[in-house]
Write a structure and sequence with these properties.
Blueprint (H helix, E strand, L loop, with lengths): L7 H59 L17 E6 L5 E8 L4 E2 L10 H18 L5 E2 L6 E2 L5 H11 L6 H9 L6 H12 L3 H10 E2 L4 E9 L10 E8 L16 E2 L3 E2 L4
Parallel strand pairs: 3-4, 5-6
Antiparallel strand pairs: 1-2, 2-7, 7-8, 8-9, 8-10
Helix pairs in contact: 2-3, 4-5
Length: 273
C-alpha cells in the first residue's frame, strides 16, 4: 500500500487553534484585570465618599452635643478615667464611641494665629522645649492649632520648664515644677496655679504673663471617635477619627452654656490601632 500524504493545511491547524486560544485567554485575562481594577477604584471612591460624609456628620453631632453641656459642669471632670464621653448611634447601626482629653497638654509649635505680643515667646518656648526633650530623650508633644497656653493639668514637666525659663529667666522655678508634679491628677487646678504663682514670687506683670502661658481650665480639647459595627460588638474598631475642638465658655447667655465659638479646628482620620 502506498501511504497518502497529509494535506499541508491540516498540519498547521492544531498550532493555529492553540495560538488563537492563547490570544483569546490572554485578552480575557487582561480585560478581567482591568474590570477588577476599575471595580476596586470605584469601591474606594464610594468608601471615601461615605467616610467623608460620615466624618463630617459626626463632627456636626459632636458640636451640637458639646453645646448642651451645662455651664457649671467641668467638661473633663464628667468623663471616665479613659476619657469616654458618650456613644453615638448612627443611622446604619454603627456606633461612634466618643473620647475627650485635654488638648492643651501639648506645646504649640507654631506662632501663626497667636497675638503679636505672644508670638516671640511662643516660638522660643517651642524651641527650648524640643531641646529639653532631646536632652532627656523624651518624645515632644506638639500641636499646631489652638491657644498658646499650656494646661497645668496635663502638659509635661519639660513644657513648664521651657515656659518658666523663657518668661521668668531670673526666677528659681524648681519649686514651681515640684508643685505641678505633686498635684497632677489630684489637686484642684486653680489652687495649683496659685501655688505656682507664689513659688515663682511673681508681681502683677509676671502674673499676667503666666496667665497667658499657663491655664487651670483648658478650652482646647482633643476629640477621638472610634467606629464599631454595633453597640456591644466584640469586633474591633473599624475606623478612628480625631480633631481639636475649641470650647469657650459663654457669658450672660442664659441656659446656653457655650457660645457659638464651639468649633472644630482639625478633623482627620487617625488610623486603627
Amino acid at each position: 500500500m502506498t501511504a497518502r500524504a497529509c494535506a499541508p493545511g491540516r498540519a498547521f491547524a492544531l498550532p493555529v487553534v492553540l495560538v488563537v486560544m492563547l490570544v483569546v485567554t490572554s485578552v480575557a485575562a487582561i480585560m478581567l484585570r482591568q474590570f477588577t481594577a476599575q471595580r476596586l477604584i470605584a469601591e474606594r471612591q464610594l468608601h471615601g465618599y461615605q467616610e467623608h460624609h460620615a466624618r463630617y456628620g459626626i463632627e456636626e453631632v459632636l458640636a451640637s452635643w458639646i453645646r448642651t453641656i451645662p455651664r457649671n459642669v467641668q467638661l473633663l471632670g464628667t468623663l471616665g478615667q479613659d476619657g469616654h464621653a458618650v456613644d453615638l448611634l448612627l443611622g446604619d447601626g454603627t456606633v461612634g464611641e466618643v473620647y475627650l482629653r485635654d488638648g492643651q497638654g501639648a506645646v504649640l509649635a507654631v506662632s501663626e494665629g497667636v497675638s503679636p505680643e505672644d508670638a516671640p515667646w511662643v516660638e522660643r518656648v517651642a524651641a527650648v522645649y524640643q531641646d529639653l526633650c532631646a536632652s532627656s530623650r523624651a518624645e515632644p508633644v506638639l500641636r499646631e492649632v489652638g491657644p498658646a497656653a499650656l494646661s497645668i493639668q496635663s502638659a509635661p514637666t519639660e513644657a513648664f520648664e521651657a515656659v518658666f525659663s523663657v518668661l521668668f529667666p531670673d526666677s528659681d522655678y524648681a519649686e514651681a515644677l515640684a508643685i505641678i508634679d505633686a498635684n497632677r491628677g489630684a489637686g484642684e487646678p486653680g489652687e495649683t496655679l496659685r501655688q505656682v504663682q507664689t513659688a515663682l514670687q511673681l508681681d502683677g506683670e509676671g502674673r499676667q504673663r503666666l496667665a497667658r502661658a499657663v491655664v487651670a481650665r483648658p478650652t482646647l480639647h482633643f476629640v477621638e471617635v472610634r467606629l464599631r459595627p454595633s453597640r456591644g460588638s466584640r469586633q474591633g474598631v473599624m475606623a478612628r477619627f480625631g480633631g481639636y475642638v475649641l470650647i469657650e465658655r459663654g457669658a450672660g447667655l442664659g441656659d446656653d452654656p457655650w457660645t457659638s465659638r464651639s468649633s472644630f479646628l482639625t478633623w482627620n482620620p487617625i488610623g486603627v490601632e
